[in-house]
Amino acid sequence: MDERPLILLTGATGYVGARLLRVLEGEGFRLRCMARRAAFLKQRTAEGTDVMKGDVFDLKSLALALEGVHTAFYLIHSMGATGGFEEMDRKAAHNFAKAAQQAGVKKIIYLGGLGEGAELSAHLRSRQEVGRILRESSVPTLEFRASIIIGSGSLSFELVRALTERLPVMLLPKWVKVLAQPIGIEDVIRYLTEAVGLPLSESRIVEVGGSEPLSYQDLMETYAKARGFTRLMIPVPVLTPAVSSLWLGLVTPLYARVGRKLIEGVKNKTVVKDPVARELFTVEPMSAREAIQRALMNEERAFAESRWTDAVSSAGGKPPGPETAWMGTRYIDQRTRRVNATPGRAFSSIARIGGRNGWYAFNFLWQIRGAFDLMVGGVGVRRGRPHRRDLRSGDHLDFWRVERFEEKQLLRLISEMKLPGKAWLEFEVKTNKGRVEIHQTAIFYPSGFMGRLYWLAVLPFHAFVFQGMIRNMVRWAEEETDSPFIKERRRWGRFKR
Fold first, then answer.
1. What span, in angstroms and rounded, lies between the C-alpha atoms of 199 and 322?
2. Does 318 reside within a domain?
3. Same domain (yes/no): 289, 380
4. Which helix (H) or strand (E) holds 475?
5. What does the pLDDT look like over 50-90, one tens digit per residue?
6. Which of 118, 240, 346, 419 lies 20 to 30 Å (CA to CA) from residue 22?
7. Strand, coil or helix: what is 222?
């Protein structure tokens, strides 16, 4: 029998939770995760991690998830939800506190937000109310309060990066000069991890932040310097938080409602006043400059470890259908289709792509694009694909190369075309509530103005090329090998073996 204390992690599909999950697993903790989409999360956890389907609004599932738990992480909030998010947060916290008390949980660890005063934004007020509800229970609660979190894929980092990358001239309202104390995501994770072993006899608040107070303007200037940009920043007196949030919806990746809640919180000063974190923990917080440099280093990978858009709010998941968005320095075109076939069959339709088999839709456009690539000194599509049936990491595939291949699950391609930027194309098979899905994601990191211009030039073609790809991929997977449907398409050179 495993004698290690059992830890419950909620919010493991969110930005902080996903990072914390990997660290806790890596350090050998006995771990259980509760998620509304358990099947989705199970694909992202290590073999020894227990994943349970549960919801903070479902008391029965909550009681089962907390059974036998020693320490519970509460990383749930409804910032991305529509409607009365404050009431939802309040009810969720009450449910969790009561269930934890009844289950005999020894400690709750919660990540909230810094800020003080009578004019707190609704978002910060709700985060602190959740902390108060948890602390008022009989379960000792350690409430961390943090300011801006800086890391690859974090909401605040996406805001700073998108504004600085896209706007050579910026009009700065008063709120960009309000002081905060940005903290790197790695430092946040270290605090949370160390908190597991911290003795706690009564509830307390611990304020955490980076090495120095800075404003959003300071962060944008620091980011611009790290990227080698020169930006002209002009202060203006009239841009209110409400108007700012609408403007952010046009020039940054933020959803309008999330942007408004974020800006309303930015107007509040969020700096560390109580230095007790330095006494209780061994963490030596990095500077904002170091945090930005580390975030940029991580963004050189194909994908950030986790992104704020990965989070599933308590109001529901991300909207279905194609999603095309600007995410800081990258563009994303993401599409999902359900498949009435086994995961293996679905992945077979993915693994056969390229070469003589073609790209499922508008192959002549792929040939034309390859010809243009040859004209500018690229590889074109003349390399085809390996003669063997199976792909491996490192294989060439027309003007792509296989960057990552996981049998029956994932194929990630990196472009070797001559491009004003970097491009990836990823296909993944997932099972969600017993339904098999193919996820197709195109990602492009533009290099300067020409990179953004290139994406806008090819964007009209994506609507039918990428949609046709995933649609025909699903058809291939669903149809029987000897069906008339497949035979007819083979006759016309489509769906070749």
1. 47
2. no
3. no
4. helix 448-478
5. 999 999 999 999 999 999 999 999 998 865 454 577 889 99
6. 346
7. helix
